[in-house]
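[SOLVED] Need 3D model of a two-part complex

Original post:
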Amino acid sequence: GAGVSQSPSNKVTEKGKDVELRCDPISGHTALYWYRQSLGQGLEFLIYFQGNSAPDKSGLPSDRFSAERTGGSVSTLTIQRTQQEDSAVYLCASSLVRQNNQPQHFGDGTRLSIL
Amino acid sequence: DQQVKQNSPSLSVQEGRISILNCDYTNSMFDYFLWYKKYPAEGPTFLISISSIKDKNEDGRFTVFLNKSAKHLSLHIVPSQPGDSAVYFCAATVASNTGKLIFGQGTTLQVKP
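Solution:
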């Protein structure tokens, strides 16, 4: 497809397990962002990647969260030893370049539920 | 510390009338403001943006107004249509040009036929 693709669309796991979420950005987009939306809240920035530059990890809530982007395309967000407060919708977005006037295109998200 | 605030969780309007969604912010270093629309189980979709050096931007039925002195912006939808029913998020970017979006909590708009 032409849009941002995320998988899985839903993930239910037990507390303490590790999870991995995947994002395929729009082809040719060099900037990739991860956000999460907790119940009743707005979207919260987690991390972004721009080309080969060092990622901005300033939004990651704890060291249990990490992300990587291989080959400047696909990105994975990993949450280790999941906690119930990690339950949220995790959204990935991409834009042509990392610039403030470039609209970001979002995937449909991964709904993560921690039991 | 909520830098972008949407104080109305919900809004209901009649089809054909104007919808006005409001957003307040605290950071004077924001340089772009954007509105996104979100349907259930889908990702947000970009609607319209405005630079901090402008006070109005219009695109079809959508107009965004920016009042920098009041640190307030609003999205006007005229005329409102039932398909506009969704959650609307206000977002802003900081002038460091990272593209990182800071979102408000969202306002759920319901347009009644």
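Edit: Chain B is about 0% helix and 55% strand.
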